[in-house]
Design goal:
Blueprint: H1 3-6, H2 8-26, H3 38-63, H4 68-92, H5 94-101, E1 107-109, E2 114-116, H6 121-128, H7 136-159, H8 164-184, H9 194-212, H10 215-218, H11 221-238, H12 247-268, H13 308-318, H14 331-334, H15 381-390, H16 399-408, H17 410-420, H18 427-439, H19 447-452, H20 461-471, E3 498-499, E4 532-533, H21 555-564, H22 588-599
Antiparallel strand pairs: 1-2, 3-4
């Protein structure tokens, strides 16, 4: 008699396990395996060792006073090596990634009102383009900090467990990072060498996909992705000049091809979704797929989840003067649909018909940002709605009085009860329906979207040239990120940036606008003084006049301001200006083409 037959429970468990194994052998949909992917970690650790070695080599060259050309060549090698493992560092160690390859700007601790010194590759880039021997010790100090970050990478990947679903998710994010930050030169704003290093990012993706693949995708999706990546790299090798590169065709014909094939690989390998709510839907083949974005990634809690029923009720209230103190103003009074939910005035008007401090911002795509109002004083749309309603100069409403009116209205009462299943309407519910309506105002149906979805006749030749300039020579896309064209940073969309432009009172650019912007709420943080949220450029053609103060009447005036180099170029003392003060040297025709492209961002 076997040992198993002596113990009925063990016999039962053994048989159950055998049956389960048999079931999975017969079932085409094999279950995902969650083992630690040691071979992937080994590759990351090896790449990081090369990264650290190259940093030490550059440090030695700096110490020996090597010439600038050699220093830059070694620096480019370092950047390319980092790009091979960027997918892993950004995903598993995002805090370290910020200090390895983040913007050369202070990291701000908002709650503490403090700034942390910038460091990393972008800081070094500014020191090497051009290089001055007087900065020798500072360059070495920054290289030592980078070595410390490399040690952090090594330490963490020695001990953390990574699974196939996480690795795939990280690789997919990297494909979208390339399609937004990478293609714009976001992390090489001075050298502009992003087209030369993009192949390294793609090689890192390709090599890792090969590592995690099985026979299920080997001759199918994997083969197609490898072919697509190789052809993309060949295109990149043919032209590395950011000012003449054909972005308008490269993105849909090559980068979007790769992101779409990633979903085929996921399906064939039976890789489950990582259970985290993200702005970009897990089933989005490209940035420009219909319904690619999830508004629930920007809500304050699960109970605030978007629904069409909430949006419809919010639409009704948005147009109802019941929200104002004297029933004489609705949200739609100042946010006019035909003007992309602005009012067409330089500055918003108070209830007493006097000018307020700032221009009325568009509500289109406002749901896809972290920070509402020009100064970002509210985190989400729920907070924004109550702030406007209760503001004495705007609507002077009392939320409790408004709720009493709503609870006495049978139609409103029934609508709220149907959605929230509560006897009486609460403040958060009123905020939520209004916010839900605003979240519905992102249509993603412009001519540009159609072009990116394959309709090559959707944009004119001028608009195509304008887009190439927008991404390349004009560097607009390093602040207005594709595909939202606002300051919410892809591919995670977890942070919305503010910028210091040094804007003037008006398009004559003679008098500096002293509005502190976000700095009003962080008086001790110098980098936030005169900073304002980066708004979306979608529907920008409908929202004149421009800037936070409405002082720039036309897009031509705005483009001339940028072309010169922002406030510094006009003699304003803006030590913390984040906009590059280097002239863009755009011709009048090039400016006109960029403006034509921006018209292609109008919703239809």
């Amino acid at each position: 008699m076997s040992k198993l037959s002596k113990y009925p429970i063990l016999l039962f468990l053994y048989c159950a396990a055998a049956l389960l194994t048999l079931y999975h052998c017969k079932n085409d949909k094999q279950q995902p395996i969650y083992e630690d992917l040691g071979s992937v970690k080994i590759r990351i650790i090896k790449t990081n060792a090369d990264f650290e070695k190259q940093i030490n080599e550059l440090k030695a060259l700096v110490a020996k006073d090597a010439d600038e050309k050699l220093l830059r060549e070694k620096f480019q090698d370092i950047r390319k090596t980092y790009k091979k493992m960027e997918w892993a560092v950004e995903y598993f160690l995002p805090h370290s990634a910020r200090f390895i390859n983040g913007p050369a700007l202070p990291e701000i601790e908002m709650d503490e009102h403090t700034e942390i010194e910038p460091e990393g590759l972008q800081v070094l880039e500014e020191m090497l383009y051009p290089y001055e021997k007087a900065n020798k010790e500072e360059v070495i100090r920054m290289l030592n900090k980078l070595i410390n970050k490399s040690n952090t990478i090594d330490t963490n990947f020695q001990v953390i467990t990574i699974s196939k679903d996480q690795v795939f998710d990280a690789l997919r994010q990297e494909t979208f990072r390339i399609s937004s930050l990478g293609i714009s030169g976001f992390d090489t704003p001075v050298s502009g060498t992003f087209l030369q290093e993009m192949p390294s990012s793609l090689e890192g993706i390709k090599e890792t996909l090969v590592q995690i693949s099985t026979d299920r995708s080997k001759n199918k999706a994997l083969k197609n992705i490898i072919t697509a990546i190789n052809s993309t790299i060949e295109i990149l090798k043919k032209n590395t000049d950011k000012n003449t590169f054909d972005y308008v065709n490269f993105i849909p014909d090559h980068l979007q091809r790769i992101t779409a094939l990633m979903l085929d690989f996921k399906k064939q390998e039976n890789i489950p979704d990582v259970d985290v709510t993200t702005a970009l839907n897990k089933n989005a083949a490209t940035f420009f797929s219909k319904n690619a974005f999830n508004p629930d990634a920007f809500i304050p809690g699960k109970e605030y989840a978007y629904s069409e029923e909430k949006a419809a009720l919010g639409h009704q209230l948005f147009n109802d003067k019941i929200l104002s103190n004297n029933n004489n103003r609705s949200c739609a009074t100042c946010h006019i649909p035909e003007k992309a939910f602005t009012d067409g005035l330089s500055k918003a008007m108070s209830l007493e018909n006097s000018e307020l401090a700032r221009n009325t911002p568009s509500l289109n795509y406002a749901g896809y940002q972290h920070g509402q109002f020009w100064d970002m004083r509210k985190d989400d749309l729920e907070g924004q709605s109550s702030d406007v309603i209760s503001n004495k100069e705007e609507m002077h409403g009392d939320l409790n009085i408004i709720l009493a009116k709503i609870n006495q209205d049978k139609n409103y009462q029934a609508a709220f009860k149907k959605i929230y299943h509560s006897q009486k309407t609460e403040v958060w519910q009123l905020q939520n329906v209004l916010a839900s309506y605003i979240r519905s105002l992102a249509k993603f149906n412009s001519d540009f979207d159609e072009y990116m979805r394959g309709n090559k006749s959707a944009m004119t030749d001028n608009q195509k040239r304008g887009f190439n300039l927008f991404v390349g020579k004009a560097q607009c896309a390093i602040c207005h990120f594709l595909p939202l064209f606002n300051g919410t940073v892809p591919p995670n969309f977890k942070k919305t940036e503010q910028e210091v432009l040094g804007a003037a009172m008006n398009g004559e650019n003679k008098v500096f606008d002293t509005d502190p912007g976000r700095g009003k709420f962080h008086e001790t943080v110098s980098s936030l003084q005169h900073s304002f949220k980066t708004p979306t450029l979608r529907n920008i053609n409908k929202t004149a006049p421009y800037m936070h103060n409405g002082g720039y009447k036309t897009l031509k005036e705005v483009m001339n301001f940028y072309n010169k180099g922002g406030g510094k170029a006009f003699g304003f003392k803006v030590d913390n200006q984040t906009l590059s003060d280097a002239p863009l040297q755009l011709t009048d025709q090039e400016i006109d083409d960029i403006i034509e492209f921006m018209k292609a961002l109008d919703d239809q």
